[in-house]
Amino acid sequence: MSDKRKVKVDKNVEIPSPQWGNNRIYPWKEMEVEDSFFIPLGPGEDIAKLQRSINSSSRSVCKRITRRRTEKGVLGVRAWRKS
């Protein structure tokens, strides 16, 4: 069965920057060794997925450690730059 839908081609539509897993989201290059940041868990967000996203974003930039934490009553992930 062939698909006969007409597809419209758009021109000059800007490509948005990625939201997660991108070094622009996580400030690895601006951080010094032992600096850290905390990302709170969003509604319906999986903490393991957030932790994997943080870990995979830094592989080419630095070594890091992430830990699941509750800070000020908020569950999330804290990440430290180790090298």
Structure in words:
The chain has 83 residues and is α+β, with helices and mostly antiparallel strands. It has a domain at 34-81. It has 1 helix and 3 strands. It has a 3-stranded antiparallel sheet, covered by helices on one side. The protein is elongated and about 55 Å long. It starts with 35 loop residues before the first strand and ends with a strand.
Task: Summarize the helices and strands and which ones pair or pack.
Layout: E1 36-40, H1 47-57, E2 64-71, E3 74-81
Search tags:
3-stranded antiparallel sheet; 3 strands; 13% helix; 83 residues
Quick gist of this model?
The chain has a domain at 34-81. The protein is 13% helix and 25% strand. The protein has one helix at residues 47-57; strands at 36-40, 64-71, 74-81.
Specify Rg, calculated over alpha carbons.
Answer: 18 Å
Helical amount: 10-25%
**Overall 3D shape:** elongated
Major pleated sheet: 3 strands, antiparallel
Task: Give the terminus-to-terminus CA distance.
Answer: 56 Å
Low-confidence stretches: none
How many β-strand stretches? 3
Task: Report the average pLDDT across residues.
Answer: 82
Helix/strand order, N-terminal first: EHEE
Class of secondary structure makeup: alpha+beta
The strand order across the widest sheet is 1-3-2
Provide a count of the helices: 1
Per DSSP, what share of the residues sits in E-state strands of 2 or more residues? Answer: 25-35%
